[in-house]
Amino acid sequence: MxxxxxxxxxxxxxVMKDVGGLVADYQSQTAIYRASDRxxxxxECRSACTMALGLPNVCVYPSSTLKFHVAYDPRxxxxxxxxxxxxxxxxxxAVRARLGTLTRNYxxxxxxxxxxxxxxxxxxPKTNEPRLMVASSAAAGKPSPAAQPGAEKPLLAGLMDKxxxxxxxxxxxxxxxxxxxxxxxxAAKPALAEVLLAEIPLPPARPVELIQTAGAIAAQAPGxxxxxxALAEAAQAIPLPARRPPDAxxxxxxxxxxxxxxxxxxxxxxxxxxxxxxxDR
Length: 281
Hints:
This protein is α/β, with parallel strands linked by helices.
């Protein structure tokens, strides 16, 4: 894998063998790696590829090999002092001090030497990597915040308190919260039903009028003698409505405007006539 052909993000760039190329191409790719803080791991790197040593997130292996030389024009193989200086300035100060200067011939530095000069070893973890936090066994014995006295109750627990207070079962809510603080297994649901059935009061009794009416209706149905006798006694206790006097009933009938009933065949009068008169001819 070459330096100029990285894998997709966020995988590290692993350079197995890169023989270099145009310094301008490697400068552009190095700027991309620097901006994205991409990790670059070098195995064998030559020429312009050695510019990767200037990255903050670069590493080498003890067995790695890096080869340095001056930049030259590939068309006529003439050295380019200006580009060579840019390449040399991209190295860390310790590497520049070890190299001294760049020449036409390769100067080789092993991974072990570069690690001694301050380049990170790829086998070692990065210093800025987050560490895994492991909870201590002493923290396991601490009670949960909800179980501590005076602690603020969760939102659902507060809603449950308000709902149960309407039915007069606030004490049951406290028992439920204490039980939930000890165990959160699904088996707590039957316990909740038992507490509610034991603490919620029964609905108010029906009015006496409804009970008497129901007893009178049920007294007409067949049933055991003892039940019928009890219902008959309840039916006798129902007061009957007061009856109207006979005179009041008759006077009410007379006041009704009853329609006149006409029977038999009737003559049909033409329009404008009120009656027929029999005339002898």
